[in-house]
Amino acid sequence: MSNEDTDQYRGFIRRLQREEHRPAALNDIKNLIAFKPAGEAINTIRDGGISKIVQCLNVSNTSHVDLTCEVLRICFEKFEPGDVVKNYTSHIMYLLRHEKSCVRRLAIEQVRKAVSTSPNLLPVPQYIDVYVAVAQLVSDTDVGVANEAVLITSNLPHEAYHKVLEEMRVALELNSSSKCNVFEVVVHISSKSYELFKMCADMKYVDFMVSELQTDDILYQVNILELLSRLVMKPHGINYLVKNGSLQKILGYVTELQSNPLKGLLIPGYMKFFGCIAHSYPKEIFEKHTVVFDTLFESIESADPAVLPVALDTLGFIGTTVEGKLCLAALGGKYTQAINNVSRLIRNSNTETKVRALNCFAGLMSIDKDPTVSRSSPVDHRVTLMTREWFRTLDSKPMETLFEICKNPFPDIKHAAFVLLDAVCQHQWGEEMVARAAGFIEFLMDRSIVYTKETNEAKYDIIKRLANSPAFDATIIGRLHTYVEQGPFYSESQLEVAMEDED
């Protein structure tokens, strides 16, 4: 800015000292700064300072506070991420602790910009107080502020966490919403490394989470179970729960559910929790905690709409690994009946349930989702035999049935059907069934049918698989290779345009 603009800015700042002039002066500052290039605006803001503007927040008049926030936001937007916190640290600390939520939102936004740009933009030794102040806002009464605080605190430099976790404990004495926000941060931190998990565990955060499952607040319990489900996806998370007896405690809570009149609300949470463990440790869970899976199979058989979606998701998730498939098959008749029930739901159910059942079946059929299995290795012959038998429960002519579902007019059903087809085509028997299904391969290569982007990509993945399959003759293989070369979104109109360009 020119010297004249800087003098104007200082004049407006002086006018802020008189309450009757304050709104006009704030608007003048806003109009002066808003449309100036960042470099010019920053020099003037630094020369004139923002202390007098910040002091305008110490009034009861809400409209004055809102206008002051707007002016400060415009000033702050001129700076690079992190520079506001660096240049005005004491002001940011004041704003973070202000009684008005709009002021806290303004300040926490600046911290978020810095942390999201680079975790090391604000070095811990100089800015630990800022990090602690933000962490304390995870229990803020303003949901927007609390959510920002959770996001920021979950992604701090690792060396900040010891102090932050110590200071955040005060929120555990507040309401269930505040405690859930703390737990979410703890789960995020714990997922980063064993060392950080141990820090959280040593401060008794994990034990406190488990103990809170004994609350009568159903929604609170459900939220804790959701967070614990994420925690046990990490080896150090499940190992800790096993060693300190927490897993056994949680299993006891499941047993007690049978006498709970609200068990329908809680069973999905417990089912997902144990399903996440079984995904990684199916053998151990199936051997010692069969009661959980009895509930899972009963939920699929009863088709209880309150529990069925989670039951289907959980069964499919457990079955995505080879070990999960083998452990499920070892259950014998219970699991066979469950497979028949899933097939029935695919054939006869509403749209949402049909989509879930198709995705569940895809998990049970797929082998590519198992990170422990190399794609270059031959498929375990037991898995080949099992998955083929499971697929045959779909109908007497399962591939023809799947063909019809792929032609369903509802996009979400169609996409789920292609996901299942992709899983089936990961097996040689699946490729051979596609080859024998009259008109199926022509349907797959028909580019005149309009699909969503996701379904087009799923179909393209299937064709890439089939292009290398021995189940087709040379002519079909040639057409499949041509399709692959043209890409998933090629259309005849592209060819026509290309020919016209050549002419």
UniProtKB/TrEMBL annotation:
User: Does Transmembrane appear among the keywords?
Assistant: no
Question: Is Mitochondrion tagged as a keyword?
Answer: no
Give UniProt keywords alphabetically: Proteasome
The Gene Ontology biological process annotation of the record reads: proteasome assembly
Q: Name one GO cellular component term.
A: proteasome complex
Family annotation (PANTHER family) = 26S PROTEASOME NON-ATPASE REGULATORY SUBUNIT 5, 26S PROTEASOME NON-ATPASE REGULATORY SUBUNIT 5-RELATED
Q: Which family does it belong to?
A: Belongs to the proteasome subunit S5B/HSM3 family.
Identify this protein by name: 26S proteasome non-ATPase regulatory subunit 5
Q: Which gene encodes it?
A: LOC111355453
